[in-house]
């Protein structure tokens, strides 16, 4: 009996020792917490864990002795499970200063993500100020809402009256916005693809709290698991043909937004109006065709000649207008006179003119003798006395019409049949002239709107640059100086006017991404820490993400992204080298560095122009393009 008792005691002691001395043999299961954040992590219809982060985690541990056990819950439940030790690791989490106290994170982020705001369709939100008095839903304990640079902190800066309401999942947030239980919802840049499944939700351009997404464990626990993750993740990320990029393309590139659905959703009212307008135009055209056909039959006109005239009008609309948009309004008026004389068979002579500041200028005339032209112009001045704009005056032998070029200028057209002719203007010809008058008015209106829109876009970009200068006092005037230097260098190199203009705007907005970086880092006195410098290095990517979404700036977004790349490949963010870097970015890079060197900063004094040029020359072929750098030095020496 004593022998059996002794054996049991020995077995118990060995079991206890094996648990503490050989933990890997005692417990080789990794409990992983996850929640719904499609397509990064989520629970599929069969109740299984799925998504990009789950598949990468499985790949990392596929050849290990560990068994992976996934535990699903809400985001808050997942964090509670990690805090209590119920799970060993959480996938899909962003690092912050607050979280860094409680958790350990792997070093290499799987990808960059940032917060977005969606709203119920009746609300127009262009800035944080538009959120005043709204209810905003967010994922409970979500980084994009409650952490540093989250939306709550951003709106508190403006002292806005906002009620924030927490939810357990992003899906609950979207459903609440769809029913207008909350007016807006905080989601992330990947979740935004799901809003097009809801008919009452629209996207906004507000972005905040950008950060790298990682894996995390409880502080001091399971560090060996994070080391394994970083070791294998670095191998995967550095191999462009690895499983990482295969799954990245599957989950994050191939699952695109249904842009047709997005366009339909965002423009449903416009689409309906276009359809109704098109239907109305169709009906009007049918009526007009019927009338014209009837008149042509009554007048026994030749159908072939009619078709030829309409062909000329179509050619004028499709070719000449496009050409005159490039070459100027005088050419348009001259062509308008030529087409009028072609389309109106009774018209034998005509003149087009402008009146600017009460002074009459002849743009073009056809078939008038000098004396007759003088009489016509006297008639113009009489008819325009006191009421110059939008005239259509007809008689049997002459038709006179005017339209506005702009606020300061009036244009006009006169056509005459001729004194010796017995013809008079037909109803058909009068209609043609009315159409041409509307065409001319539409041309000048379109040109005016185009100019207004272009000026608005320029003013908007300048305003954003001024916001950056408020954010960072030391960059005041820097962006404009870089823009001027860059465009001047582009001209010196003989680039086209269009390219010079693109390079100017690239220089003006090259640092726009710094608005999204903490001001304390931007304006810090002295040397930056490694972490702070890594944060600063993200500003070209932030600028790229913001600029690429606007039609006005999408063409220069890539140049902004690459303006800190180096010829030797040691730049950022992409490590491009040589001809991989756009010439526009190379030009802005030199101008940016030169202006920085000759300007004072909080952490160093400025140097003089000669020293700065020597510094640029010393870095040709490494930091700067050799040929562009020589052209810059040549330009500066000339001046």
Describe this structure in words.
With 639 residues, this protein is α+β, with helices and mostly antiparallel strands. It is 51% helix and 16% strand. The protein is extended, with a radius of gyration of 35 Å. 30% of the residues are buried.
Secondary-structure map with pairings?
Layout: H1 2-21, H2 23-26, E1 29-34, E2 42-43, E3 49-50, H3 52-60, E4 67-72, H4 75-84, E5 89-94, H5 97-102, E6 103-105, E7 111-120, E8 135-139, H6 143-146, H7 151-157, E9 163-167, H8 170-178, E10 184-188, E11 201-218, H9 223-238, H10 243-253, H11 259-266, H12 268-299, H13 303-327, H14 329-343, E12 349-356, E13 359-366, H15 370-383, E14 392-394, E15 398-406, E16 409-416, H16 427-471, H17 478-492, H18 497-509, H19 519-522, H20 530-536, H21 539-547, H22 554-561, H23 583-597, H24 609-618, H25 626-638
Parallel strand pairs: 1-4, 1-5, 8-9, 8-10
Antiparallel strand pairs: 2-3, 5-11, 6-11, 7-10, 7-11, 12-13, 12-16, 14-15, 15-16
Helix pairs in contact: 3-10, 13-14, 14-16, 17-18, 17-23, 18-22, 18-23, 21-22, 23-24
